[in-house]
Amino acid sequence: MYYVRCSLKSKREEAKDIFSCTFSLNDIKFLQRLMPGRFVMVWLPGIDEFPLSPSDYNVSNSTLRLTFKVRGLGTRSLSSLSVGSSIFIRGPYGNGFRVSKHILQGGSKLVLVAGGGIGLAPLIPLIKDLLQQDVKLHVVCGFRSSNEVFFINEITNLLGDSHTVSTDDGSLGVKGTVVDVVQNLLNKRKVSYVYACGPEMMLYKLHRVLLDKGVPHQMSVERYVKCALGICGACVIDGLRLCKEGPVFNDVHLKGLKEFGRYKRSASGVREPLL
Ligand SMILES: Cc1cc2nc3c(=O)[nH]c(=O)nc-3n(C[C@H](O)[C@H](O)[C@H](O)COP(=O)(O)OP(=O)(O)OC[C@H]3O[C@@H](n4cnc5c(N)ncnc54)[C@H](O)[C@@H]3O)c2cc1C
Ligand code: FES
Fold this sequence. Notes:
This protein has about 280 residues and is an alpha/beta fold. It is about 25% helix and about 35% strand.
């Protein structure tokens, strides 16, 4: 295990409390080992270490972009960095999304990518990979309200109008949740595969809908990550280590997880109901 020093190249406030920080790093091998859905451990010395899944990376420019929502001290400190200052990262960790011709085969059928809130960020590298495949792609981006909407220009640049924006309160785009939008699409179109990332209750409801319709899927799930090396057990969900066997689980795995959509574990390992 080793840490890589990253220097902040640019910073952007995407929406209320949502920031993107682009770092340059001199470690091509690190960048080459990244793939959509894998995560890095971000270490701010003297403050905290926590997991984030890059929203972009570029081997030729040696850059890595982290997009995150400010939740506590770690993410607030990251959002307050000034250009030129350094942080450290280790990894990348986890399995990432699987994209293969075998998974996506379905002729004229559609592949959906569904992101809820900050869960949209780690889906950008996946969308870029899927665009290299010979598939029809539609992206659903759901937010609570218009002031939390981000990355829509980026999605439009990548996909044109092959995307739907929804807000729970109807302040922008379609009124409703990501699950409502996907359900509508499933009623109208033949969908061969769904990829998703977002709040666990959204993922759980979407998983139930997709199981019911028999649509295979992969979802990136969140748990408390400490070592990220598969040793401490902090991230275990029904015997699977999120940092090793996850964070992306497919429909077969998700179906067998009794804690998915029901329980999470706190920093001290106490099992708590998921609200
Ligand atoms: C694999 C993975 C990828 C993630 N990718 C992203 C991302 O791309 N963008 C983003 O905004 N967020 C992402 N997160 C969530 C992110 O790790 C937390 O928002 C962050 O750790 C909060 O830290 P804090 O110090 O700001 O807040 P704190 O006050 O320390 O914690 C606030 C809440 O954040 C969560 N959290 C805190 N520490 C951890 C930890 N070590 N592991 C998991 N959750 C934690 C807990 O729910 C906690 O209650 C990801 C989480 C995981 C597990
Ligand atoms: S965080 Fe996964 S085993 Fe330690």
